[in-house]
Input
Amino acid sequence: GEQPRLSEGKNQLLLPLSNYGVKSMSMGYLVGEEAPVVWRGLMVMKALQQLLWEVEWGGLDILVMDLPPGTGDTQLTITQQVVLDGAIVVSTPQDVALKDAVKGVEMMRKVNVPLLGMIQNMSIFNCPNCNHTTHIFGSEGVNKACEKHNVPFLGDIPLHANICDDADRGKPTVVAEPESPRAKAFTAIAERTAKTIGL
Output
């Protein structure tokens, strides 16, 4: 795929890739598609510094950081280096995933990062052949976790092949199929989140 270039001038900042008005930067762009990123400690901190401070972001309305699951060096470094408006925790509904998600919630509380809410991913599957709807991973896991831990519930993202296909083509679902139920689910979550942080 396309790789970021360096800006001209003495600062030599990375130029983020841009698609549909959204700028993005990822370790995946920098290390190659099949190279594993098995870093800890100082290497993680250096990489995060580069992504945050050595990219020519320009004027942004909002900066979204998509972090790996867990409560390790990456998450801790972000909370120490950036003033965050809040965190969103995404989880599938089954217990094993929720245990990690709840650890993320509690970590954010410990470091005084506001919790904007939780999102339930892969919440429902609609069979394209017979139209039968089923909750493959359970239906209420994230809702119950939100109630138990006093976190706002931001919405459900369905499990649908088109979401993956759209992403692989570099075309977000909200652009590829703006009137589809899944696009409306993404839009509703974005609107709730924007309202919470005053956008």
Summary: The CA atoms of residues 59 and 192 lie 23 Å apart. Residues 95-110 form the longest helix (16 residues). DSSP finds eight helices and six strands in the chain. The chain has a mean pLDDT of 87.
